[in-house]
Design a protein that fits this description.
By secondary structure, this protein is α/β, with parallel strands linked by helices. The chain has one domain. Helix content is 27%, strand content 22%. The protein has four helices and eight strands; from the N terminus they run βαβαββαβββαβ. Strands 2-1-5-8 form a four-stranded parallel sheet, sandwiched between helices. α1 links the parallel β1 and β2. The longest helix has 17 residues.
């Protein structure tokens, strides 16, 4: 069983109310091989919502609101779901402040990428779950 970003499964949960369906992920969900989650929604953030990026140890919206607590709470809930389903692998949305794997936006909202993981991706890794982005499929 895999845990996957819900937006990759076609759920319209991204910050702008859209999805980014990945055919492989959609097929896994249809076949009962993957569980879709959106850590940002699990953390209590609405959809649509103001875009957010990681900056330092926190996550902030474009207008400067600190949403670190919501991102952390959503990551914890997503981890709980992954553990309940005995997931050993995750496929998450590239560059997302929650789900980014290896590269995330730098917090300036300029499109610049820096090395790092999203809040959810990092938590999954620290708990022994293999994580990659949809770009690695």
């Amino acid at each position: 069983m895999k845990i996957v970003s819900a937006c990759l499964a076609g759920v319209k949960c991204r910050w702008d109310g859209t999805s980014r369906p990945c055919p492989t992920v959609v097929e896994w969900v249809r076949n009962g091989e993957a569980i879709p989650v959106c850590p940002e929604q699990l953390g209590g953030l609405p959809t649509p919502r103001e875009p957010a990026e990681q900056r330092g140890q926190g996550v902030f919206t474009k207008s400067g609101k600190d949403v670190s607590l919501e991102f952390s709470r959503g990551a914890e809930e997503g981890l709980r779901i992954a553990q309940l389903a005995a997931c050993k692998e995750a496929v998450l949305k590239a560059r997302s402040p929650s789900c980014g794997v290896g590269l995330v936006y730098d917090g300036t909202f300029s499109g610049k990428l820096v090395a790092g993981d999203g809040v959810f991706a990092g938590l999954l890794k620290r708990n022994g779950i293999s994580v990659r982005s949809e770009e690695g499929l």
